[in-house]
Amino acid sequence: MKKEVKEVVQWAVFTASFVATIELASRVDQWLTYGAPILGVYTYDSALFTSDEYGIRGKPNGHYEKWILNSSGFRGDDVTLEKPASSLRVVCIGASETFGFYEQPGNEWPHQLEQALLHRQIQGEVINGAIAGMSLPQRIQHLKNRLLPFKPDVVIFMLEYGSYAGLTSERIEARERAPMALPVQHDMVDGVKSLRVMSRLKDVVLPKLPMPIQELVGNMKRRLQIRTIKQELGPAYRSFQQVQPFERQALERDLETLRNLAETAGVRLILVSPAMWFTERNLADIVISWPYLDESWWREAGTVLPLVAKAFARQHDVFYIDLSETMRGSEEIYMRDFLHFSDRGAKLVADVIVEQVTAKPSFSGMIP
Amino acid sequence: MVFNSISFLGFFLLVFAAYWSLKAHWRIQNTLLLIASYLFYGFWDWRFPVLMAATTGIDYLMTNLMRWSPQRRKAYLAVSLVSNLGVLFALKYFNFFQDNLVSALGQFGVEVSPWFTGVFLPVGISFYTFQRLTFVIDVYREDAYQEVGFFDFALFVSFFPLLLSGPIERAKQLIPQLLRARDWQSSHVEQGIWLISWGLFKKMFVADNLATLVDPVFQEGWHGSGGEALVAIYAYAFQIYCDFSGYSDVAIGLAKLLGFDVRWNFNLPYFATNPSDFWRRWHISLSTWLRDYVFIPMGGSRHGEWSTRRNLMATMVLVGLWHGAAWTFVVWGAYHGLLLIVHRAVSPERSAEEHPLITVAVARAAVTFHLICVGWLLFRASSLQQAADIFVTIVSTLVPNGISLTLLGQLAGYISLLLLVQFVQRVKGSLLVLEGTSVPLKGIAYGILFYLTVLHGGTSNSFIYFQF
User: Fold this and answer.
1) Of B166, B182, B198, which residue is a domain's last?
2) Which of A54, A255, A368, B89 could form a cystine bridge with A86, CB 3.0-4.6 A?
3) Which residue, of B182, B197, B231, is where some domain finishes?
4) CB A210 to CB B6 under 8 A?
5) Does the CA dihedral A280-A283-A287-A293 come out positive or negative?
6) pLDDT digit string (tens) for B21-37?
7) Which one of the listed residues B188, B283, B323, B343 is annotated catalytic?
8) Is B25 an active-site residue?
9) Which residues constitute the domain of residue B144?
10) In a domain, A30, yes or no
């Protein structure tokens, strides 16, 4: 008995010193590589974002692993409030696909847009004002309070429809009244809860596993998440099967607010359609991020909401770029979720925008 | 399926669990290991195990015929040698000799097309052929062996931990272990886990990362600085050492987990203080094989200095040729032969003992290391011309341009932990450095190895010595 107890104690000591070592190594590694604090919290949300009276914003000079923000809290090089002479200043706003969640640094589409402009001998300065996880109404506030002071010539606004997903009119109103909160990123939340080394191991080890095992792990995780969500939501789970009239109206209302804002500020507005590619696989997974919505909602939203945006643009003479046709059908331009762009996909977005903008006489006249 | 892959981990865990669940039945354990070994080899190419089974059958038959008709054993040995070395020659060296013959005939104006191309080269063939020959030659020499059944002999040849890159185990060492029950010993398991962890660290962290410093310099059309080339050669010295000795450590560790004791293949070779000492520490299973089955039968050092020099040179050229069918390997072998001959000439005492003065010992080790590095340049280059070009670049541009501190920093970063552990191994006089240390220290050591191997290890799915 004594021997067994001794063995158990030895294994416990071994495990504790092993785990402590890999956790400490991970922290030292992050400190050396990214300048992360050895002690304290170092997560995507805590390192990159903060809040002020207008809600969530990018942390000035914040950096988390590959994501680096400038002194104004945006991605990309530092910008001054004063616009450089004979230069076109462009502000891009969107969610994670504009922020550049998966692309290598410098390959997010706003940065590639600047390169594409330069390639056409257009002196442009592109500010990437996107914050991953921001809803459309939040982005409008963000534009008003933090980006318009930079006096852009053009605002490129990438739409997405998840902002309206499953929100009843009461919820929309409540959200519009409430200050902006930090975006909920399930994986990031997991990262905060666990040891730092765990999230690093997950990133490194999982892709090395044989594909069937990766799928098995992915499916198990997915089932677990869905079970938790189902328990939390009860009958509300996937309760939205069709796009509701109030969702459509909310989109129109937001677009109207956006147009008025741009008009008041004297800024040319460009609306860019979302470029999500709905497949059986990502429609099955999307419920984890939008648990109120059924797959049928997304299928309908993918057709109906772009029509709403397009009709709005036509009616108010707002330039509208439809990416959906250009982007569909090529796996290489997407990450595995078919929601976010790969480096190549981001380049394609930038190229399409530059091509369409420079072809439009009313815009080409603005180019210095 | 290589040792540093997840699929091998799954394969080994299955074999390990099944193997020890049959603890009471060592013959069934052998059958399991034989099936696992052939499956493991078949993952590479289905033709490989077929060829191995055929040549194993021939050797088994010949050794039995030697026992039954001792008066004709020379003829049976000849059949075995011809079949083993013939297959090795046909698959590994035929193209080399054919190309050289065609080129030589072309010099005399005789245009000949190659007769035969597209031969497949089974991975590990040089290793298992030499391993099998130890049995054949020992039976021929009438070294006592207990009766070995065909399947046990086939397992001796194909034993999967050693199959692809050795160590080339002697029949005398391994066969007796195959013919008795293996005990589960916790010390064996502990040693095995350390060797596997240390071996994977050497392979994945050190060797695979150093490849990023080495490969660009040896690419076609490289035009860099002498400093870059010098760092690449130093890096290659550690890359090849860690790649091969890492494999050997994992192989020995896996064998230990299955209850087998396999000889060491490396013993801190860069601590060698002379060329002779280096070959006592580097690829020990091959150098002792050649000593016992080539150098000594040729006369060894028994017939005067000139005869010894000739035997040394012949043996080392054979070492070079064993590594591959290319002139760079032949010249590399001859270079090492020359080093051994010169060392015999200049060093009156050939004792393995170190010089009592530490500074002298360190200086000798440094000189030996640099001589070995010159050899590695020949070994790594794709042609003698490339080796000469790189050498000229180093000599002509090193002094004016110097060495990039960034490259030196990278090199130091990848090898510093290796050197630290090897220093401890040297001082402790044991490669199993964690034996007898405290439990928390073990946890810390395994934690560091795990972190660097898994989170900073390379992703190469091959080992350098697979090509030999």
Assistant:
1) B182
2) A368
3) B182
4) yes
5) negative
6) 998 899 999 999 999 99
7) B323
8) no
9) 6-100+113-182
10) no
